[in-house]
Amino acid sequence: GELMLNDRYVMWSGRNKATSCILILPGRCQTGIELAKQWCNIFLDNTMIILITPKNKEWYPMPYSSLDQENAVLGLETAREVIESTLDRIKLEFKIPKNKTAVVGFSAGGVMANYVGINSNKEYAGFVSHSGAILEPKFVPKCKFSSVPFILTHSENDEDFSWDERYVPMKNSLID
Predict the structure, then answer these.
(1) pLDDT, tens digit (0-9, with 9 covering 90-100), for 14-60
(2) Residue 176 has pLDDT above 70, yes or no
(3) Can you tell me the distance from the alpha carbon of 46 to that of 3, in angstroms, rounded to the nearest whole number?
(4) Is 66 exposed, middle or buried (0-12, 13-18, 19+ CB in 10 A)?
(5) Range 60-69, long-range pairs (CB < 8 A, 24+ positions)
(6) Distance CA 107, CA 149 (A)
(7) What pTM was estimated for this model as a whole?
C-alpha cells in the first residue's frame, strides 16, 4: 500500500515479511511504478520492493547541461536526506538492515541512487543506476565501503546528455 512520508514523498511496498529490500527511485516526471514492476518480475525470495516518488515528480531542479546544473546540485542534499530517512524507516519498520537494502534509480532517480551511494556513511547492499549520472564527478569523495557494488547502465545514444559528457566521467570517478 501507499504510505505518506511527508508533503513531498510517498512510499509503496510490495511484499511483507522480507529479509532484504530494493528501494526504487523513479526518474523525473515518473511515478516509478513501471520500474518497480520490472524489479518485482525478478524472482527474489523475501525481498520487499519499496518505491518513493517525489510529490512533484522531481528530485531536484532540472539541469540544462553539464555546464548549467548549479540549481540541480543544490537540490541533491535535501533529496538525499529524505531518501536516507526512508532507508532508516525501512530498517525500523520492516527490520531490514541497510546492508540488505539496495537502492535502484532510473534517470534522475539514478542520479539520486549514485548520490546516496557516494555520500552515505552507511553500508548498503548496492546501488543500481539506470541511465543516471553523477552531476559533479570531480567531487566524488574517497570510497568508504569498497565491497558495496555500483551497477551503472547507460545508453550511448542518450538524447539529453552525450556519452562522453556524462557516462565516462561518472564511471571514471567511481573507479578512481
Answers:
(1) 555 788 988 989 888 877 777 766 666 676 777 888 888 877 788 88
(2) no
(3) 20
(4) middle
(5) 60/108, 60/111, 60/112, 62/28, 63/135, 65/161, 65/165, 66/135, 66/161, 66/165, 66/166, 69/135
(6) 18
(7) 0.85
Q: At what angle do helices 70-94 and 108-119 cross, to 10 degrees?
A: 70
The answer to whether the beta carbons of residues 23 and 63 sit under 8 Å apart is: no
- Give me 73's grid cell: 546540485
Q: With helix as H, strand as E and coil as C, how does the chain read?
A: CEEECCCCEEEEECCCCCCEEEEEECCCCCCCHHHHHHHHCCCCCCEEEEEEEECCCCCCCCCCECCECHHHHHHHHHHHHHHHHHHHHHHHHHCCCHHHEEEEEECHHHHHHHHHHHHCCCCCCEEEEECCCCCCHHHCCCCCCCCCCEEEECCCCCCCCCHHHHHHHHHHHHHC
Amino acid at residue number 4: M
From 151, 157, 152, 169, select the one nearest 69 (Cα to Cα).
169
